[in-house]
Amino acid sequence: MDILVTNNPLVLDRCKSCVHIEYLDAPLIDVLVRVRDLVHLGHALRTHPLSGSIKPNETLYKSVLVSGKHSHIDKQSVHIAGACVLKAQSFPLRVFNERVLYDMQIVDLSLISSALSSCAHER
User: Fold this and answer.
1) In this structure, are residues 21 and 68 in contact, taking their beta carbons and an 8 Å threshold?
2) Which residues are bridge partners to 65 per DSSP?
3) pTM, rounded to two decimals
4) Which domain range does residue 30 map to?
C-alpha cells in the first residue's frame, strides 16, 4: 500500500479517504527526513520530494508519495531522497504570513493531486 507523507493539513483533509496518509505536524525538513527513512526501509519514491521546482525555502508544506515496502532497497530512491534532505538543509528558513501559508498548501495539494488522480478534488 502506498503511503503519502505530508505536513499539509489541506492534503490530510482532502486525501485521507483515498490513500494511507502519514501526517507530520512538523517542518518540511522533517517530511523529507521521514521519506528518506522510509526509502531506507524498502519503500520507493512514487513522487519526487522536491516536485514543482519549488525550493525548500519557498514553501513550508510538502507531500511525497512512496510505495509500499519492498524486499529490496531502491538505490535511485535512496539517492534522490538523501539529496533532497541535503538540499533542504542548505536553505535558510523563512517566515510567511497566513495568506501565503494557505497558498502554499494549495500549491502542494495541486502538485500531489496529479499523482493521486482526482482524489484531492472529490470534495
Assistant:
1) no
2) 4
3) 0.91
4) 3-122
Query: Over the stretch 18-58, which tens digit does the pLDDT of each residue have?
Result: 899 999 999 999 999 999 999 999 999 999 999 888 888 89
* CA torsion, ordered 114, 118, 120, 123, to nearest 10 deg: 160
Total tally of structural domains belonging to the chain: 1
pLDDT of residue 40: 97
CB 7 within 8 A of CB 62: yes
Q: How far apart are CA 92 and CA 122, in angstroms?
A: 36
CB 66 within 8 A of CB 45: yes
53 half-sphere exposure, CB direction, 13 A CA radius: 0
Confidence tier at 116 by pLDDT (50, 70, 90): confident
